[in-house]
Amino acid sequence: MTSKIALITGATSGIGEACATLFAQQGYRLILVARRAEVLKKLAVDLEDKYAVKVFTLVRDVREKQALTEGLEALPEEWKKVDVLINNAGLSQGLDPIDKGNTDDWDVMIDTNVKGLLYVSKIVSNWMIASKSGHIINIGSIAGKEVYPNGNVYCATKHAVDALNKGMRIDLLPHGIKVTAIHPGMVETEFSLVRFKGDEQRAKKVYEGFEPLLAQDIADAIWFAVSRPAHVNINDMLIMPAAQATGTITRRKE
Ligand code: NDP
Ligand code: 8X3
Fold first, then answer.
1. Which atom of ligand 1 lies nearest, measured to the CA of 140?
2. Which stretch is the leader sequence (predicted)?
3. What is the ipTM of this complex?
4. How far is the CA of 159 from the centre of ligand 2 (A)?
5. Is 154 annotated in the active site?
6. Residue 160's domain is classified under what CATH number?
7. 244 in a domain, yes or no?
8. What is the mean pLDDT of the chain?
9. What does the DSSP 8-state code read for residue 249?
10. Which of 61, 115, 144, 174 is most buried, judged by most C-beta within 10 A?
């Protein structure tokens, strides 16, 4: 059993939850961050019971710089030796042409997907520098590799994640910190429900007639990157459902 620590943002559902489960299975101690306190608490209790690992929960909104910073800095010193940071918290809001987009939605996406990721990374990369090791996994998207109709601002945030991933790798190289981006295509999670603000019918339609990725598929890819030998870094992985060729082109059953 390892005594390593993984910090996962957006751990209450989808890819983050799958990562929390997989890293707990691997014996990691976990720091889990998300906004839904009850969901986070239940997950922590379940993982502690099932895998006999220690889980520290931090109920925070990654957009709230001060509360986030205070919460992270208040962690006990032994919890600051983070080996793996998974910058996963993120979302899309709306799917409209640029002239009709909701500017509040734009703020939420930019503040969460870009600024929230930066706030967490600044703090945790300093901890990693102090311990001269670590691995940062940034969750990008196919939307960070191409732009699809009405994806405008969400695609821009994920292109920013792609650029930040490259920048972090350069800046943290002298400190022996690995940096990897995992870019998924369509994964069936709460993502579409959030994008369409609770419209279950519309969210369900996104995955109809073809087999999307599962959150577990992405957790497996992250584990592959994390478990490479010390001299190997996976810079970037683009992972698509076999039935999805681009952001919008899918092969579906009639
Ligand atoms: P989910 O909606 O299932 O999970 C998103 C997670 O992020 C939740 O745990 C949510 O928790 C958390 N979160 C959202 N906003 C905040 C915030 N402001 N502060 C803290 N936590 C937050 O979606 P996915 O698992 O699919 O998404 C995970 C990542 O994967 C995102 O970055 C997304 O952009 C990316 N992605 C998803 C794809 C997909 O098709 N599903 C494809 C490509 C990339 P809570 O609400 O409790 O705060
Ligand atoms: C989420 C997947 O295809 O909606 O990043 O952009 S997609």
1. 44
2. none
3. 0.99
4. 12
5. yes
6. 3.40.50.720
7. no
8. 98
9. -
10. 144
